[in-house]
Amino acid sequence: MLTQQFVTFDVENHFFGVPVGAVQEVLLNEHYTAMPLAPPAYGGLFNLRGEVIGTVDLRVRFGLAPRPITGPVINVVVRVAGEAVSLLVDRIGLVADLDDSAFEPPPETLTGPTRRMVTGTYKTEGRLLMVLDVDECVNPTLAVAAV
């Protein structure tokens, strides 16, 4: 039985996961610098041990109200094309080991930009886990979606 590991988190009431191999680290941060003229989903910049990290507010990516960047915010730092980018999430979950045979394609009800960001789903205990494509989540040309 082949399994994959996913770092799980919540955005609003939606349950998401990204492959463990894409995640550099998970951290709390509260010091951000605004990015003038950036698309609305780009929440700001912060310094992580000398590296400037851009943030993508997944709430905005999914057509929800933006999060205020005040106080500690959960950052899931992922690597995209060799660069670190932070996905801002509401709550962090656990690392889930999921059986490949339980993987299903995205539901037909997901359309537009959301469908490009969600590669598939797993039915977990009481919740549907939507697997995100981190490249698409940080793609600046992708329009705002709605979940």
From TrEMBL:
Q: Gene3D superfamilies from the xrefs?
A: CheA-289, Domain 4, SH3 Domains
Q: Which GO biological process annotations does it have?
A: chemotaxis; signal transduction
Q: Name one Pfam family in it.
A: CheW
This entry carries the following GO cellular component terms, namely: cytosol
UniProt xrefs under InterPro entries: CheW (IPR039315), CheW-like_dom_sf (IPR036061), CheW-lke_dom (IPR002545)
Which parts of the sequence belong to the CheW-like domain? 3-143
Record's protein name: Chemotaxis protein CheW
Which species is listed as the source? Actinoplanes awajinensis subsp. mycoplanecinus
